[in-house]
Amino acid sequence: MTWKRFGFFRQFKLNLIRLIRLRVEPDEIARGMALGLFIGMTPTFGVQMFIALFCAMLLRQNKIAALIGVWNTNPLTAPIIYGMEYEVGRLLLGLPRPTTQIEFTYEAMKELGWMLASPLSLGSLVLGIPVAAIGYALTLHFIPVMRQWRVPRWPRPRRKENITE
Question: Which residues does the UniProt record annotate as the domain DUF2062 (predicted)?
């Protein structure tokens, strides 16, 4: 089995082709991509696609590019991204690392939630803005280049024909 048969790679290629073939200016695609990348950096795992679609419709940005940009946070990259965002936010707020709670009361859990949510939210803003800016610049540069490419089709597996005699 070759790597081309894996669904992830095929889906990535199809999304890339879909993005390249959009009949809009590269700036419109880049703005949608930047919006999707920024929303993908927020700690809203699980509803990011809906938020990106809603914001793209509200701000009149490219919806397909925004939805593709959200995939910067996926189950493989989310622990790394959210860990970095938490540490950046915690350092900026000057908070200590949370300790495990011995008592499981409502007040103790609420305090732990704020100790996690506030640094994570600040870190997502601090890291999301440069990621969106870099994504905008790269998309703006690479869309015209990629439109020049000729993307070959992947060969489909041949069917074995049943020959009955």
Answer: 10-150
